[in-house]
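During data preparation, a discrete fold description was generated, as reproduced here:
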Amino acid sequence: MAKPRFEILDYLDTPLGPLCLRRRDLLSQPGVEVTEVTLDHELLMSSLNVVSEEALATHALAWHGGPGPHDVLVGGLGLGYTAHAALRDPRVAQVTVIEALPAVIGWLREGLIPLAPTLNEDLALTVTEADVYALLLEPPEQTWDLLLIDVDHSPSEPLGPTSARFYTPEGLTRVAEHLNPGGVLAVWSAGVGDDDWFTENLAAVFAEALAEPVRWENPLVDQGQTIDDTLFLGRKARG
């Protein structure tokens, strides 16, 4: 029996709207299969374009610059590309992913996402169900070398009300307590140039702060389409 060209792998209602995991063949590129996540009927992420998700890990690790071994916390599992990019770095000893939705963790455990075979076999990866914002705003039970956050659309466009405090100077001061000296907080954001206030808040708390654009091409649009995302980075003083 031929494999269907379009499959709904999972569909559920969440407080943020319907969440859907789907797999489809690209009619414009025969033989290419993509896995996509939609939230409230809008495309959230795709295995076809993972440049900025991987850059969240690779750029933060490069900016940290330390020799390791590093312990990394990733906020938001998604399709797993940020965690996978962190695990590929030989300086990384352990990656802990904090994911709020048990269904998303199930996608990994049940092998529904492309990286599942690799991630499920990696003993350096731990996946825990929790709210990463709530975790980072509480006193730390352990500290990390890198905090990589990809949950909200952007600091100005959160998915829900629980993360608002995270982006404030008061919240970032709490977050910084979860970092070791020289540690890096990196936050992914869709778009570019609309959240300068968050860079200022980072600079008020961290020894160094910057907003770094990440550009990638969308091959599904005729003649290409350039997409700009942003990585916000703050580095704690080395002590």
Summary: The chain has two domains: 6-45, 50-235. The two ends are 62 Å apart (CA to CA).
